[in-house]
Amino acid sequence: MYQFITGPLLWLAFGIFFVGLGARIVLYIRGLNWRLDRVAYRAHIGQGIRGALQSILHWLVPFYSEGWRSKPLYTTIFYIFHIGLVVTPLFLAGHVLILKERWGITWWPTISMGLADVLTIAVIITVVMIAVRRFALPEVRILTTFYDYFLLLITVTPFVSGFLAAQQFGDYTFWLYTHILSSEALLIAIPFTKLSHIVGFFLSRGQIGMDFGIKRAWKAKGGFAW
Amino acid sequence: MPEGILCNKLPVTSKEKLDALLADTRGRQYYEEMEQIEVDVEKLQNSLQATLKSRLRTWLEICAHCGYCADTCFFYLANRKDPTQVPAYKIQSTLGEIVKKNGNVTNEHMRYCMDVAWAKCTCCNRCGSFCPYGIDMGVMFGYLRGLCYSQGFVPWELKIGSGMHRIYRAQMDVTSEDWVETCEWMADEQQDEWPGLEIPVDKEDADILYTVNAREPKHYPEDIAEAAILFHIAGENWTVASNGWEQTSLAMFAGDWEACQMQVKSVYDAIERLRPKRVMGTECGHAHRATVIEGPYWVGREDGLPPAPYLHYTEWVAEALRTGKIKIDPEKRIKELVTLQDSCNYVRNYGLKNVTREIMSYLVEPGYFVEMSPCKEYNFCCGGGGGLNGIGRYREQRNMGLKVKRDQILATGAKLVIAPCHNCWDAIRDLEEVYELGFRWSFLKPLLIKMAIVPDHLKPQEEEE
Lengths: 226, 465
Prior knowledge:
The complex is a heterodimer of chains A (226) and B (465).
Chain A: H1 2-6, H2 8-30, H3 34-37, H4 45-60, H5 66-70, H6 72-91, H7 93-103, H8 113-136, H9 138-141, H10 146-166, H11 172-189, H12 197-216
Helix pairs in contact in A: 2-11, 2-12, 4-12, 6-8, 8-10, 10-11
Chain B: H1 15-23, H2 28-34, H3 41-51, H4 54-62, H5 74-78, H6 87-100, H7 107-119, H8 137-150, H9 156-168, H10 176-189, E1 208-211, H11 215-218, H12 221-234, E2 238-239, H13 250-254, H14 257-274, E3 278-281, H15 285-298, E4 310-311, H16 313-322, E5 338-340, H17 344-348, H18 353-363, H19 395-412, E6 416-418, H20 422-435, E7 440-442, H21 444-451
Parallel strand pairs in B: 1-2, 1-3, 3-4, 5-6, 6-7
Helix pairs in contact in B: 1-9, 6-7, 6-8, 7-8, 9-14, 10-12, 12-21, 14-15, 16-18, 19-20
C-alpha cells in the first residue's frame, strides 16, 4: 500500500498536476485576443512584458501594492497562509528525504522541524481565520459558496493530517496514509479548480499588467502598479 | 412578444425610428415593452462562444470571493456597505450567471443585468486596481453591456444615443452643417474682443486638429469659442473637421460596438484626410477613452494607436504653459482653496495624473491646491461616469452614489473644483444641485482665459479719431 501510494499514485498525481497546469498556461495564452481584449500584445511586446513584470512583482511582494496596503490585517493573514502552503511541503525534511531515496537528489534545501511545525500550525490557524472571515463579514459572505469552503478543506487536510502524523498522534499509519492520499487528491484537484491560480495568478496579473503597460497607463511614469 | 416596437434587438438606423423613440417620453412604452421581449438564447450562446475568451473566462473562474473589491467601489460605500453592491457579487450574479447557464437566461435576468450594468457600475475600473488577481470588473461590465445591448436590454437614453451616432456620427442630432455654422457663428461673435480670431474648418496639414463633444455645438457653443480663444492666444495653427469632428461615444456606454466603430472611423477618416501633425480633444474623459484608448481596437488598428498622435486637452494645456505659449498673469492666480477631479478615463486608464498637476502649479497660488483623498489613479469616480449621468431611470441611484464624491470634496475644504471632464463636471454640478454645499466647479478653459496674459498684438485696436 505504502509503496503504491508513494509510487505510481504519486507519479500520477504529479503528472496530472504538471500537465494540467501546463495546459492551463497554454490555453490561457492561446485564448488571448488582441482585438477582443483590446490590448495590442504583439505590437508593443517590450512595453507589455515590462508592465506584466511590474504588475506581478508588486503583488507578489507583501505590501508592495496599494491593494495589499489597503487591508493590512487580511494581507498579513493571506501571506502567512500562502508562505506556509508553499514552503512547508517543498522543504520539509521528510519530503526531501523521499527525493533523496527515489532520485538521489541531495542538494535540495530543507527547513528545520521546528520551523515546519510553526508554518503548519500557521497554515491551520490562518485557514480557520479565512473561514471565519467568510461568514463573519457580510461583503465576503455574499460571495461565498460551498465550493469555497470545500477548497479550504481540501487545502488544509494534508496539513492537519501531516501534523498529526508527525506528532505521532493516535494511529500513525492512519494519519500518514490520510496525509499522503489527501495531498495527492489536492495535487489532482489543483488544475481543475480555482486552485489553478498557482499559475492563474501569474497569467491574470501578467495580462492586466500588459493591458496597463501597453494601453491604459503607458503615459503614467512609475508608481502605479494596478 | 418576441420584439417590441420601440424596445428590440435592432439598432436604431433611421431618423423615423429615432423620432419614435424620442417621442416616447422617458421611455415609458420602451420599458414596458422590455418586460415582454424574448431572449435570443442561441444568439447569446454564439456571442459567448465567439467573444468570451481566456481573459474574461479566467477572471470569472478564479475570483477568490475574498471581498477585497468591496470598499474599492463607491457605490458600495455610498449605499452603506450594502453587500449586493460588492463588485464581485455584481458581476458574478449577472455575467457569471449568463455564462454558468450558457445563455439560457430569462427576460427577468436580462433586466436585472441591465439594472446592475448601468446603475451599479460606471466602468470606472477602480476595483481592478485593488484586486490581487487584477480582475477588472469595469471591463467585464463593459462586456456585459454589449451582451445586454445585443439583446435589446439597454437604457432608453443610450439606445437613442447610439442611434444618434449611427445616424449623425454624433451623440446628438448635430449635422455637419450645424457644426460648421456653429463654428462660424462663434468666430464672428468674438471679433470685437478678439479681432482676427478664426475657427478654420478642414484646413489641411495643420499642426492641430481639434475634436469636440457634440454637447458643445448643441448646448455650450461658448466652449468652442473658448477653445478658439486659447488657440488664438497660443498662436496655434489649428483646424476642425467638417466631418469627423465628434469625439465622444454614447455607443461605448451603450455597448453598441458597431456604432462605436462607425463613430471612431469618422474621426480617423478626418485625420487621414486632413493630415494634421497632432490631434487633440476637448476636456472630456470618455471621449478620450473612446477615440484614443479603445477606438483603435474597434476599427482594427493592430498597433492599438490612433492614426496620428492624439492628445488630451490637459496635455496641450500643460505643454502650452510649459513652453510659454500661454502665460499666466501671476496676479490672477487662484487664491482660494481649490481641488482637482481626476477623471477615471484619462487618469486611471491613461496615466495623465502628472499633467493636470503641472497645470495646477501654474494656475493656483502655492499653498492653495488641495488633493482629494484618495486621488490620482486611485481617485473615486465622480459618480456619473459610464453614461449614468444621462439615464433618467437611474437618477436616484446616481444621486446616492454622488455622496462619496461629495464627502471627498468637502474634506478638502475647497471652494472650487476643477473638473476637466464633461461627465465629472456634470456630476459635480448635479451634486451641488442635490446637496447644496456651496462650492463652485469649472473646466480649465474659462479659468485659463481669465488668467492668461493677452499679447498686445491680439488686443482690439483703439479706434483713432
